[in-house]
Amino acid sequence: MELVCYWNVIRRRWWLVAGLLLVVGLFSLVTHDWSPETSYTCSFRFNVGLAPIPPDEAEYKYDPLGVWTASEYLMDDLASAVRGRAYAERVVERMGAADVSLAGRFGAVTEHRVLTVSVAWGDAAQLADIANAAVWVLQQEAAQFVGAVGQAEPVLRLIDPPAIAPVGPSLKQKLDLPIRLSLAVVAGVAGAFLLDYLDMSIRGREEIEAMGIQVLAQIPRHR
């Protein structure tokens, strides 16, 4: 019975729900960016290590465990450097494209001794140039961003070359309109119940009897 009462409240003020839904829908359609902009992403992976330098008068070349441990710390420094502005500016210099800004474009994640670098761009051909420059800067100038570990220089070996792929709409873009419309419906239903609560009109026998007043007769609605 309560569900029927709730439905009657919404049915009496359907115009409020429909109006909010219409306004939000039109506003979303007008403000939506309909330009068919295609984005691309590129990622490549490096194996990160150190060029071992044997200590003076040593009977062995190097301590493998020490080199591997140092490489793990070096990974975190390299990932931070890749995400920084200095690395992005150096890639732009390598490309020779002064009108390109790559600050904040690069991402980097680490897993054991593997560094994965990613970058997104709107033009596939230019993204290939960006990726090639980014690989060259990391392989040739990594020590400039993280420094040397003792006398050992960082060594980056490219294990996965740059791979470019188109990027579809993000989850946020896909859910933006449905979420807006859903919120409009929720707000409309809430407004309908609020107006019904503030309305002192009597619309049925049940409401009168709930007030303790006996109903003697009821005139049916003429249809």
Describe this protein's structure.
The chain has 223 residues and is of the alpha+beta class. It has two domains: 2-34 and 171-210, no CATH class; 39-167, Alpha-Beta Plaits (2-Layer Sandwich), CATH 3.30.70. The protein is built from seven helices and four strands; from the N terminus they run ααβααββαβαα. Strands 2-3-1-4 form a four-stranded antiparallel β-sheet. A hairpin with a 2-residue loop joins strand 2 (106-111) and strand 3. The two termini are 24 Å apart. The mean pLDDT is 80.
Q: What's the architecture of the largest domain, going by CATH? A: 2-Layer Sandwich
Q: What's the number of extended β-strand segments? A: 4
- Quick one: overall form? elongated
- Percent of residues in beta strands? 15-25%
Query: CATH top level of the largest domain?
Result: Alpha Beta
Using the CA coordinates, give the radius of gyration: 33 Å
Number of domain units? 2
Distance between the termini: 24 Å
Strand numbers in spatial order across the main sheet:
2-3-1-4
CATH topology annotation of the largest domain: Alpha-Beta Plaits
Structural class: alpha+beta
